[in-house]
Amino acid sequence: MIKILLLLFVLSGCKEQDKEIQIIYFEKGKKFEINDKYISLKEIQNIIDSLFLTADDMLKVKVDSSRIIGIINNESGIEIEYKEKRIFNSEEFGSFMLKKILLPFSGEYIGNEQYPVITIFLGEEDFLSGPLRNSKGLKEVKIIQQMILNAKRRQLSKILK
Question: Directed axis angle between helix 138-160 and helix 41-53, to 10°?
Fold first, then answer.
């Protein structure tokens, strides 16, 4: 009887477990959390791992909160935050222990079809100077962007029903 009461007590205190990964889509200052029911987190993570692995440049810029706020307020993209620090590997730059990344979809940190460069901002608690660049990553970032926008659309349509 005591075991049953203890189990009920423990279960009643349990909340939804903390997410291992949180994806926030931002566009011109508005933020929208992407629910993992509407997107394949594993697929997104595989693409991001590939972008890290093949990163071939590092920007020599100071990354402070005003730069990140400027990107979030004026552009679109995603910020991914992990519950625990995670190792990301780059053939060119070695390993990074990170808690979050920011991946712009628009603005000065992403190229175009003729210049397909992308930028990955790296973070622990704050974002670090020296974001990585991938000179051929635009196609993959566009895939992530489309996945995010589709998930957002499905999520919003479910809310509006």
Answer: 160
Give the tens place of pLDDT for each residue, 5-31.
333 333 333 344 457 899 999 999 999
CA distances for 70 relative to 16, 25, 39, 135, angstroms: 33, 15, 27, 23
Which residues, in sequence order, are CB contacts of 48 under 8 Å at separation 6+? 80, 88, 101, 103, 120, 144
**Which residues does 89 contact at the CB level (< 8 Å), separation at least 6?**
49, 52, 53, 95, 96
List of residues 6+ apart from 70 with CB closer than 8 A: none
Supply the pTM of this predicted model: 0.85
- CA-nearest of 138, 91, 130 to 111 is 138
Structural domain boundaries of the chain? 19-160
Q: What is the DSSP string of 55-77?
A: --EE------HHHHHHHHHHSEE
